[in-house]
Design a protein that fits this description.
The chain is α/β, with parallel strands linked by helices. It has 3 helices and 8 strands. Strand 7 and strand 8 form a beta hairpin. Helix 1 runs antiparallel to helix 3. The protein starts with 14 loop residues before the first strand and ends in a 5-residue tail after the last strand.
């Protein structure tokens, strides 16, 4: 059997997304589509550590090194990455971020906003477990589940 960590406090899990050079565009999009609010934003050129910026290409100096933003009460973090060949395309696979909303109209508005230039994976509709549920992958490749909490009528 594995070792159980003896932590002084429970850990926090925060989603961190790498946008392969499109972070600024993604933040603007999430502000409009989801009402996201930026908590902090640091560009590579703003770094107080001269070594941090040394490996970044000159055309990436104004890209985002780190951003924190809230979607509702949830903190999400992100970056453009460093511009290395391995980070040239954002590959978000194996997970979905889930948005739980209060009404069918809220679900429709958010789903429509996220699907603009994206892909509808499962159309928004009533399901056996939710009055409104759908899945969409936005134009940045981030996969979402949009749902309304509550009893199915």
């Amino acid at each position: 059997m594995g070792h159980t960590a003896n932590l002084s406090a429970p850990p926090t899990v925060t989603t961190y997304l790498f946008f392969a050079g499109r972070c600024e565009e993604a933040i603007d999009f999430y502000q409009q589509a989801l009402g996201a609010t930026v908590v902090s934003k640091l560009r590579w050129s703003d770094s107080p550590d001269p070594h941090a910026c040394a490996s970044v290409a000159d055309d990436w100096k104004d890209k985002i090194m780190h951003v924190s933003f809230n979607v509702g009460e949830t903190l999400v973090m992100g970056s453009d990455g460093s511009g290395s060949p391995a980070e040239k395309s954002a590959g978000f696979e194996g997970f979905r971020l889930t948005l739980t909303l209060a009404s069918k109209s809220d679900c429709s508005a958010v789903f429509d906003a996220l699907s603009a230039e994206g892909t509808v994976d499962v159309p928004l509709a009533e399901s056996f477990f939710s009055p409104m549920f759908g899945m969409v992958t936005d134009k940045f490749g981030v996969a979402w589940m949009v749902m309304m909490q509550g009893e199915v009528s």
